[in-house]
Fold this sequence. Notes:
two-stranded antiparallel sheet
Amino acid sequence: MFERFTEQARHSVVLAQDEARRLRHGYIGTEHLLLGLLAIGDGVAARTLEQLGVDLETARTDVARAIGVGHDRLGEADAEALRALGIDLDEVRRRVEEEFGPRALDWPTMTCRRGPRAPTGRIPFTPRAKKVLELALRKGHADA
């Protein structure tokens, strides 16, 4: 399907996937597609949204507040125990990613009958996100 999108549209989908990973979500939803459009910065959609007062950082904050951020493998009790020892998990993640790159601490989230397996790099789209992409593709062909 994506081969029929413009290069910029494909790039916004890649950025949406990055946004989902950043929020540690195991799916790409319409909220991630919106963030991907805003992350492009110089696209028509981003400029239009910015004229309406929607910017990337505010949208990221709003999405995180509305939907939440995915959890690390450690639970809150683990994080609290580490905090009692003076270890800040967010700071550890920041430093590791600074040294080794984004998502360096991410664990595989895909499972099969034999247990966890390495992620393929693909995150599934929600049904609504698939519909949005399908409608965008149809609209693009109608305009052509």
